[in-house]
Request: fold
Amino acid sequence: MYGTETFLWFILAMFYISCLFTVCILTFRKGHTLLGIVGIIFPILWLVGAFIPAKKGSRYDVEQQMVYQQQVAEFTR
Reply:
């Protein structure tokens, strides 16, 4: 039983670390700082922050606007 518990804790820790480097960073880039910080304790909040729209002026919003402007410029040529 000890080996199985250790393996499951290892898998859970790897899942947490992978969420930390993907979903958590996306939550912060979208401008949801509070969800990112509280998400350290409750990781489900990282998913919420990643799925809701980005705040105006956040890094993610600015990047998306630049991409849309480039696409519009390509289609209007």
Remarks:
- Residues 2-75 form one domain.
- The mean pLDDT is 92.
- The two ends are 66 Å apart (CA to CA).
- Helices lie at 2-21, 23-29, 33-38, 44-51, 59-75.
